[in-house]
Amino acid sequence: MQSKLTFQDKYDAIGKQSKLYEGVFITAVKTTGIFCRPSCRARKPMPENVLFFDTAKEAIQHGFRPCKICKPMEKMDETPNYIKSVMEKLYENPFLRIKDIDLQERGVEPNQIRRWFKKHHNITFQAYQRMLRINSAFNDIKRGETITSSAFSNGYSSLSGFNDSYRSIFGGPASESKHKTTINIARFTTPIGPMFACATEQGICLLEFTDRKMLETEFKDLCKRLNAVILPGENDHLGQVQSELSEYFAGERRLFTVALHTPGTGFQQSVWKVLQEIPYGETRTYKQQAIAVGNPNGVRAVASANGSNRVAIIIPCHRVIGSNGQLTGYGGGIYRKKWLLDLEARNNNSQHSIQRGITSNIPLNAVLEHRSGGRHAHS
Ligand SMILES: [Zn+2]
Question: Which partner for 165 in 95, 170, 238, 303 could form a disulfide, CB atoms 3.0-4.6 Å apart?
Fold first, then answer.
């Protein structure tokens, strides 16, 4: 925690217009889905609707969007004009995709903006845009607005414009929900960051950290395979997965019983099956996994099928490591892979945790050095 201020201290400081608390905390408002600097001039929210975060990044990860009035993504008094103009566009329309070529046309060097975001918010510009888009679509539909009103409240002048954006994230137009399978989506928090879970009537079909790079691709792929649309909503499996995960994170659960619905090729299915056979607290190499599926020479194919796993943690691709014992790439970020393996090692029976006792002893530095080698999203 960056600050030792209490909730009340922070709440009292909101809107004082002093810059004293600038950079100390971020105010997020549950009812509007917006986050602000402490000094924002917008109307002061009721305390029960307020959440405080240390950084803007955390607020975005939890699904909030930056306020148009106080512009919390821009550092006070030191934001270059080229950043301001690009941000202005994103405030107007979170669904906008600003590509390198658009930046170059505005005379902005793409690397420049990437460095600025990384330095000030520890987030890439692409990741920032991606999260804004997904959050915006998620929140609008969740609020139960009609598709038309979400479209217009997001600044679209036409319904087709909104549908195009929605389709680009969730793979199909929201209006087709009556004629298709519905995949329900929920967002919740874990000790290592917020996650999305998706479920059909059959079971959980996706479980990923909200900042995962491949998320939009996975949404689209799922919609296509299941001829489905993704809409926020209630579903028994979504309730069950959240309670099982909270037990898992508390070290109280080793096995998951929630039903899964994982469309994929026959080969992917067999790889995902042997992943689920790796006991809690243990690890396997890709080579061992290749042998387990009866294809000893298929190490690369196995790694690739691991990378296509959409159900993190429950289909435990984090338990597969390089033959040298190194933690290789992980879609949710390598520090999460280490965190999960450490959690399982700590809570495992002592006789088991010794067997392949590689997890707890690896310093995070060594892990991070290996990061760039992670070709496969989830392996
Ligand atoms: Zn504000």
Answer: 95
